[in-house]
Each structure stands twice: as structure tokens, then as C-alpha cells.
Structures
1.
Amino acid sequence: MQILETVTSAMRSRMTQRVSSQLKSEGVKKWEVYRHLCIAKSEFRLNDRCLTVLNSLLSFLCDDVITSKSKLVVFPSNKQISIRAHMMPESTLRRHLTSLIEAGIITRKDSPNCKRYAHKNGEGEVELAFGFDFTPLFARTSEIKQVADRILDEQRALKRMRDEVSIIRREIAKAFEEVSTEATDSLFVRFRDVVSRIPRRATLTELALIKASLGAIMSELAITLKNNANVEEMSANAVQYERHHKESLSESLLKENNDFSDLKETISEVIVQKPDVSKAPTISLDLILRACPDIQTYASTGIRSWRDLIDASHVVSGFLGISKAAYSNAATILGPQSASAAIACILQKAEAITCPGGYLRSLVQKARAGSFCVGDMLIGSLKRPIYQ
């Protein structure tokens, strides 16, 4: 027993020395230490109820600014502590007091009969008190502040990383909305997979890995879009170079067969591709209706304008099972008029096409490479009945 008391006395002596070094002439604000501990509570294995009890105990310290001359032992009864802890039950109070002691925030300074009380002088000043000692708390002031500062830095870094991930995610999603092609489909699947795996409470390390994955997808997407732009530019140049060749080829076909006399009247209406394949070529509406008359069945008031044809092509694309994405992509690359003409041609020979949606996508790919001309497709539709 004497050995234990000697060890305890030695420990208190060392803590007192540490407190004296911590508490300089300006002192330490007790509520500031408390706020730091609230931030660092998880590091000291404390919960909110423990902090409520600690708040109650600190309120019994007379000084708000603790100096080396401050009395650090408080001796309230459990009932008094409970009242200041929002009427916490005494059984719960005792459990949280034990947690504070085990965490090294306070210690018990017991009297001979284990009661809490104080000896006061004639002027009412406390000379010796038995109760809860705050020496460990103020001895660890610097440690608690360092832990709190580190946690705050981690929280700021986490918020910053979360914002960066959100920005990258939004930019990639916007890019996919503006440009949707088969070349980007695999990247979109990867993007959705990464996004779906983001935890609700992601750590800084997890967010850093997610940011790296999204950054890689963004880089690949930029390269893919750049390559597609180069292909379109090269295709446009090739179409412009071969334009007269295509027109002369059509003329030669007409000369070979006199039965194409009516086709000769429409040859001047054949598509003349522009340098940019994404722009709509000029095609005669009459040529489309003569080559693909079945499209008129899907127009309630007949087709008398381009608007009527485009509306009918929307209806036909749904009937043929062509997805909205495939239709939108065709309209972007070919132009709305040429896309409508292509769908009219697909409808005209629907019995011979197994997958209209896939067929339309293949036409768009050929258009990108400069090997597809809507005008030639229309002429082919006009010639077909003659060969049969």
C-alpha cells in the first residue's frame, strides 16, 4: 500500500511539473482546451456523453484562465454534477467519470474516507481538496491541441479532395452528354463503375484513388474525342477531293442503261458532300420521297416539308427499334435531313435488314470515314426496282 502511494505521489509530482511548464504567465483557457478535446475526442476514446460530464466538472473550476496558481481539484457531489450535466442519471454519470479517468483526462484524489471535500482556511480559501484532479488534462494541453489541429487539417483536406472529385465527375458527365459515340461507350461504362463505387463516407485515401481513376478516364476521353475529330477532318477532306469522281460515276451508270431516263432528271439533286460531315448535305425532298415512298405512310398529313420528314423519321426509328442515342448520333454526324433520308432508305428495305439500329450505326461510321454518301444510297433505292 505504501509502495502504491509512493508511486502515485511520484506520478502526480511529475504531472505537476509538466503543468507548471505548460501554464506560463499568460495561462491556458480551460474552455479552449475543452473545445480542442471535443475535436480530438475519438483519439482519446471519448464520446459526447463523456464530454458532457467533463463540461460539468470544468464548470466547478473557479478560474477560466488556468495558471500555475490555480486550484485544479474540484469536489462536487454526484448530484451536483448530474444537475449541471442535464440531469444525467448517477449510474450513467459514474460510468462516464470512469471513462474520463481511463482516458487520462482527470484523476481521483481520494480522501481517507473516499469522500469529496476540502479544507479551508479562516478566509474561506481552499488549502487542501479531495475529489477530481484536472492536472492530467492541463498537462496534456499541447498534445490535445496538436491532435485537434491534425484532425482539422485532415477534415479540410478531405473536403477539398471531395470537391475536386465532384468537379472532375461533373466535367466528365457533361462531356459524355455532349458527345456520345460508340468509341466512348467503354469509357462511359468505366466511368459509371467508378462513380457507383464511391463510398458515402470515403476516406482521403479512397478519394485520392477515385480521383486518379477519374483523371485517367478524362485523359482517355480527351484523346478519343481528339482522334475522332481528326478522323472527321480527314474524312471531310477525302469527301471533298472525291466529290467530282462520285458525280461522274453516277453519270456513267446512267449512260449504260437507257431505262434510267427518269433518273437522269434527278441526278443534279444527288448529295454533294460538304467538307464537314457533321453538317447536313443538300438533298431534294422529292428525291427522297421517290426513292423511299414507304416513309409517307408514317406521316398523318403527308410529307410536304423537311419538318414532316424528320417527324416521320422519329416515328419510324421507334418502329424499327432504333435507339434514341443512335438516332441522335446519326443526326449529329449526318445532319437531321440526311439522317431522316437514311432512315427512310432503311425502312424501304427493312425486310432485308436484320438489325436496323446496327445498320444505321454502320452507316454513320462509314460517313465518318468518308465512304458513305446518302445520295448514292437514294440512287440505289431508285435503281433497285429496275433490276428486279
2.
Amino acid sequence: MRSRIDTTRKALGSLLLTILTFVLWGCTGDKPKEMLETAEFEERQMNLPHAKQLYEDLVRLYPTTREADIARSRLSALNRD
């Protein structure tokens, strides 16, 4: 039962972080950097499906940025594992 509660808390935390991230994206000007930082945070938290989705979105939305290059590299590494 405890692990189920922990899993639920982790999922809710990730959801709240995602919502907060999208709200803040509208307030600042460096969206690629923010997306990369959020994806890296999700990766460190071992929320790999969400991290991959954020990396993919970053590459799709901002393909010519330095952050997209980093995201491509991280996606390649995550897909190898």
C-alpha cells in the first residue's frame, strides 16, 4: 500500500511540475532553455517517459537551437538504454 501512495505522490508531483512549467513558459522569453532544464529535471527524477517527451517537443519546436542539439543527444542516450 505504501508503494502505491509513493507512486501516486510522485505522479502528482510530476503533473504539478508540468503544469507549473507550462504556466511559466508564457512568462519568460527563453523557452528552449526552460524546456531543456525541465526535461533534465525529469530525467534526474527518473521520470524517463516525460523527459523523453519534453526532449522530443524541444527538438520539434526549436530544431535549430543549441538546446535541441543537447536534447537530440539525450534522446539518443536514453533510447540506447
3.
Amino acid sequence: MKNLGILLTVAVCLGCVFLIGCGGSRSSSANSSSPPNTIASSGTNTAPISVNGGPLGGYADGAFASVTVCVPGTSTCQTIDGVLVDTGSYGLRIVSSALTTVTLPQQKAPDGNPVAECLTFLASYTWGPVQTADVQIGGEKASSVPIQVLSDTDFKVPGGCTNSGFKPADTLTALGANGILGVGLGAQDCGGACALPAGSGSKNPDWYYECPSSGCVPMPTGEALAQQVVNPVALFPSDNNGVIVELPAVSGAATTVSGLLVFGIGTQSNNGLSGATVYTVSPEFSFTTTYNNHGYPGSFIDSGSNGLFFANTTGMPECSGFYCPSTTENLSATNKGANGASGTVKFSIANAQTLFANASDHAFNDLGGPAFGSNPDYFDWGLPFFFGRNVFTAIEGKSTPGGTGPYWAY
């Protein structure tokens, strides 16, 4: 089972905490070793992204894209806007209410029963059926992609979800987006563990379920790799070894910010590494960040988190899940990959209440908060880290000019 490192909070308002994958934050100060932040001007391997408040208009530091889903092998399609781009998870998840003009085929287990998935995060869960779609993003298309359709009504939610005490994130209101586009390091959302038979004593984490009818209690099941919810980029015919999130620098706050999601690493003239430093990761898809003389080996880079989230070891004032220092704090941390590559990142943390005072601003380069949990082992580099950097995410098992994934590079 892969460590998704996902923290997800389910309230929608400007200033609420959103962490949909891994996550973190950064300041406008760039690592001196980073290459220039040039935004690709065009290409069939690109899709526009926008930090714009999302479909409800109140999302802070979320990058959104449009995704087209089609009934496999047909021209019956629907384009869905407001899908959150998330380098900290793997797979496409669409809120069922957003699917208004297409009905996608339901995935079936070998015994003919429909399959659903419960994906438990650190603070919430998503539940819903696994369905199949042809997926197009920008000029790239993947065929017969297993996706998760988020819904609490198609099948009864199993105790494995509800007993966690977490909140469901299966609606537009709860999620703040029409879906999640997981383009992170993993090829599938679980991997070999979920392919094992379910049952007592199994190492299967019970993410996948089958149920013969809508009223039954779903039972855990094994799910073959080819049937699992998959990173759609990994199924593109080309440009399928990773992505680049390209966003311009932000000084303080901005109403909207436009950038690009670029597919492929070193596959075309617009997606070369260009001197970026490669940070390979552990089997759990993490590296080590050292901050305030403490190492956090579970650290990650995640466009699905809307701030820089790290342990409050200095007593910084907090407010509603964010940091609220009286004056902006100028800080630094050092990232170190499993390959020994290291580099210092300078960042700033401003007062979140001050940042959120102007409701028309949705992009912030100095937003941060305390890491979730009593003794967190991670430093969560979220969307503010991406402003002014081109951040590469290489998919596991895929060959790239920087080596075989998984890795992050910037």
C-alpha cells in the first residue's frame, strides 16, 4: 500500500484548511539553485490551470483544471471544470453531482458485483463507485480509465469509512471542488496491497468493496492493479512519465493566477528538466525536510494542500488551522531526497487573518499552518511552494531523463 500522505479538511470558505494529498507552502523567495521559472507557452501536452477560488468561489490556494470524461469508445462526453490538481494523490475522482450529461459504466468484480472504493484520509474520506471513462486533459487522452465517482448514495457507506470518525468529502460543498485530479508519484492509488485477497489477517487495507445491490453492506475485496483507480497520466499513449506544474511567482496575494499543467518529463521540447534538482523518495513516497533543527522524514510536495503545514515548534500564534504571526516570519528549511540531493528553501509565513481580509484574493505565497496530528513526521509543501517554480512529479516505474520515477524535482 502506498502512503498517500493525504490530509483533507471538509469545509468550504476562504481561509479554510484544504489539504488533498500531501501538501505545503512556500514564500516568494526561491531556492537559489532552482532554474528560471519559465511557463510553457503552448503544446498539445499542456492544459491550463487557474488558482481562482474554485467552483464555489471561496477556495484559497487551489489550482483547478478542466477534465473531459467520455463513455469509453464513444463521443458521449462531458467537460467538468473546477477539478483540483493534486500532485499528492493518484487517480481521478469526480463528484457525482458534476456528472450531469454522461452515465459511465460501472466496474464489476469477477463475480459480477459492482465495485466501490473507500479512500480514508487523515481527516476525512471519499466513498463511491469505481466507474470507467475515457479521460481527456488538454491535448492528451487516456482510454478506459478506472475513476472514482464520489457519492454517499449509490451504495451504503461501509463501517470502514464511517467508523473512522472522519467526515465524508463526497459533495461539492464538502470538497470545494468538482473533483480531484490526482497526478502524483503513484501509478495506481493503492498498489499491490489492494490486489491481495481481503479477509482476516490480510495486508489488504480494505479500500475496495463489492456489493450486489444498493442496500447491502459492502464487503472488502481484492482489486487487481489494472482495475484500481489509476493516475490517468500513466495511461496516456505518450508524455506519460510525469507532469510539471508551472505557476508564476506571486508577491503576497493575488486574485487569480494562471499557469499550466504540462504532461511528460523530457518527452518534448517544452518539458525538459532544465537543470532542476531531482529529489528521489522513500518507498512511502516521501523525503526528509529539516526545519528548526528537526528532521521530518515523511515530507512531501503537494499542490492539493493550500498552505505550508509543519509542526509548530516555535510557538507561532495560530488561528483557525493557520498561522497568524503578528509580523511576517521569514524562515527556511532544507529538503533532502533519498538520493542525497539537498537544497535550502526560503519561505515566509504571514498572518492568515490578514491575508483573508480581502475576499477577492485566492492565491497566497505565504500561507501556512500547523501540521495535523500530535507528533507529525512530515513537512507539507503545498501550493504556495509552486508559485515561481516549475515542479516536476515523476511517476513510479516510468523512465525520465532524471532517472526512473518516483521523484519530485524543482
